[in-house]
Amino acid sequence: MRLITSTVFALLLGSSALHAETTLMLYTSQSPEIAQQTVDAFQAKHPDIKVEWTRNGTSQLMNIMSAEREAGGIKADVLLIADPINLGMLKRDGALLAWPEAPVEGIDPQVYDKDFTFFGTKLSANGIVYNTQNAKPVSSYAELLVDENAGQIAAPSPLYSGAALVHMHSVLQDEKLGWAYYERLAELDIAPEGGNGPVLKSVAGGQMKYAINIDADVLRAKRAGSPVEFVYPEEGASYFAEPVAIVKGTEKVEAAKAFVAFILSKEGQELAASQGYIPVLEGVAAPVGMPSLSEIKLMPLDADAAVAADEAERAKFIDIFGG
Q1: Signal sequence span per UniProt (predicted)?
Q2: Burial class (CB in 10 A: 0-12, 13-18, 19+), 88
Q3: What is the pTM of this model?
Q4: CATH superfamily to which 6-121+241-289 belongs
Q5: 125-239+304-321: what fold?
Q6: DSSP letter string, 111-149
Q7: Contact 188/150 with Cβ under 8 angstroms?
Q8: Per-residue pLDDT tens for 31-48?
Q9: Starting from the edge strand earliest in sequence, which strands make up the sheet with 244-246, in order?
Q10: What are the tens digits of pLDDT across the range 103-122?
């Protein structure tokens, strides 16, 4: 039996007391409901760590963090943001803490950074949604982008939406799609704009027959009674894994690691599935009506290459569609 000396015991008590006072600041692009569920579940597991959170769109959060860095440092300890490209930009700028020992066993390497600075937490795929009352089913982008669908396809803008930004870079890294995909959208009088929510509503409401949208959002709308159906395109679905990252320079590294570890754990992954997302941890079942990660053909994405090309590709997108 191991004996704990009075000195060590006092140190442990002191450490626990300090830990009990820990407050993490989380910046997230999750919906408020999902963010609160995530925080509540973590705090139930770690009652000695309080999590305060700020929610905003990915682009707005990036602007906030840029201003904070210029003013002296990012105020967040942990980030939970929709896409790997914006986090890749923070990685490039040295703003993220690498954690090579992160608990990623059983998680597909394609959903976390090879340098262990951010980690996918749940998978969402971009694909095709159609209105089941006024549109015929399609199975591919080739079937979608035909003359008869001119003006009948909605799409979010990569200048606004993190998911759409991932979609753009994934498409551009695909040898068969590339810029021809966006040029074809322009030919069909389709201009990507705004975010995913309004795009989905336009299909559910019948204003548009088709759209590029997110599987989890479409499934929730379908369950709520909207006449919509989601298709994983034959060419492959672009995806984002809502990565979590620790901000370099935080004074609360251990509490931040506890948060990341919880999100990646079986319990955290079961929570993601209950929220309607495909879990990234092997052995955790996907939500009813959704495939497992291994059943989806995904478009590969090199996030570092996307970061390097981002400025030029955004500029070309604006050339095609306007700002």
Answers
A1: 1-20
A2: buried
A3: 0.82
A4: Periplasmic binding protein-like II (3.40.190.10)
A5: D-Maltodextrin-Binding Protein; domain 2 (3.40.190)
A6: GB-TTSS-B--EEEEEEEEEETTTS----SHHHHSSGGG
A7: yes
A8: 899 999 999 999 999 999
A9: 49-55, 22-28, 78-80, 244-246
A10: 999 998 989 999 999 999 99
